[in-house]
């Protein structure tokens, strides 16, 4: 099945969303991403047991840090799907793209990309 989602969506596959660290999320913004969303398995159905719960906590931490540095926490989102919900994945991609389009470009990108969020996380502010 061929999925139809916006061309600007970049997919990075990981074995489990629990492997995505808060720094991965923040570095995406430092490198110019306008938004980041994670798509993991349904809560309670993680092969690695707690992966999607860890990912959700990291997404919330990233949202708080992005709010603190003025980028906007609403630019980060997490969705949960089963493996049979590919059309829903494409729907989430379109919804997230529309959300980001409404928010406008990453403020850090407009201001000349500041590493403030990543540095704050590295210092343990999360």
From TrEMBL:
<dbReference type="GO" id="GO:0046872">
    <property type="term" value="F:metal ion binding"/>
</dbReference>
<dbReference type="GO" id="GO:0051536">
    <property type="term" value="F:iron-sulfur cluster binding"/>
</dbReference>
<feature type="compositionally biased region" description="Low complexity">
    <location>
        <begin position="108"/>
        <end position="119"/>
    </location>
</feature>
<keyword id="KW-0479">Metal-binding</keyword>
<dbReference type="GO" id="GO:0016491">
    <property type="term" value="F:oxidoreductase activity"/>
</dbReference>
<keyword id="KW-0411">Iron-sulfur</keyword>
<protein>
    <recommendedName>
        <fullName>F420-non-reducing hydrogenase iron-sulfur subunit D domain-containing protein</fullName>
    </recommendedName>
</protein>
<feature type="region of interest" description="Disordered">
    <location>
        <begin position="104"/>
        <end position="126"/>
    </location>
</feature>
<dbReference type="Pfam" id="PF02662">
    <property type="entry name" value="FlpD"/>
</dbReference>
<feature type="domain" description="F420-non-reducing hydrogenase iron-sulfur subunit D">
    <location>
        <begin position="2"/>
        <end position="104"/>
    </location>
</feature>
<dbReference type="InterPro" id="IPR003813">
    <property type="entry name" value="MvhD/FlpD"/>
</dbReference>
<keyword id="KW-0408">Iron</keyword>
<keyword id="KW-0560">Oxidoreductase</keyword>
């Amino acid at each position: 099945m061929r999925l139809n989602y916006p061309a600007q969506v970049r997919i990075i596959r990981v074995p489990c969303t629990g492997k995505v660290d808060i720094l991965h999320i923040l570095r995406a913004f430092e490198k110019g991403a306008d938004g980041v969303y994670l798509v993991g398995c349904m809560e309670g159905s993680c092969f690695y047991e707690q992966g999607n719960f860890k990912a959700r906590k990291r997404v919330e931490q990233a949202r708080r840090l992005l709010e603190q540095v003025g980028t906007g926490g609403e630019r980060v989102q997490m969705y949960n799907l089963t493996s049979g919900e590919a059309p829903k994945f494409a729907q989430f991609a379109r919804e997230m793209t529309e959300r980001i389009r409404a928010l406008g470009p990453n403020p850090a990108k407009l201001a000349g990309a500041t590493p403030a969020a990543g540095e704050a996380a590295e210092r343990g502010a999360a």
